[in-house]
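Entry
Fold in token form

___
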Amino acid sequence: MNPLRVSAPRTPRALVLALLAVLMGCATVPPARPTERVPVLFVHGTDDTPGAFFAMLDAFQEAGWPEERLHAVRLHPNNGQLPLEVMAYQVRRAAEGLRQRTGAERIDVVAFSQGTLSTRYWMQALGGQPRVRRFVSISGPHHGTRMAYLKRDPALVQMRPDSDFLRELNRHENPFGDTEVFSFWTPLDSTVVPAQSARLPGATERTFLVPLHQLMLSSPAVISATVEALSAPSGR
């Protein structure tokens, strides 16, 4: 009688395979495949470029995101000379491109300042919301900023408090559906005035004592919170 036939039924299969691996000199077990990171789209603000996210992109790669699953869109023109609706179409094109390249059904979006409004218009008016798992708004002028009165460019006019654009964007009770939304802002903001304009009803909110609007994207605390928000297991 073959002793292997007697013992095999009583021995767990995993243990048998491990013993065989040891006998054959290849006992190293391949590491488990890490959870695939959700692709992230980064959307800059007025007078910014994708370079505004350089520190944040580095942090995401260090946290395990492959470079090909991170994309910072370049909006053109970046100075507010075209309406936010035009910028929203550029956000949509960048988002769809990222989805197609990665094969992802949904992506995450991190947007800063004016970029938060372009992103919201894409999500709310152009059908983008079902494509977004999580949306992180950083210092977005969701209820307008008085600083927008300093210029008459179309996008700046739309960012004035109580503008037609903002009234339409904010009139819906639940504009984000099942997208998880985060609002990060600084009470010391001198660009989004009043600073509380960056708040979003229903969002997970955090404030950071960052002295300047633009420094929000290089603040270690803000970067860490953003990576943490997009790293957490999905609750939906």
Notes: The chain has eight helices and six strands.
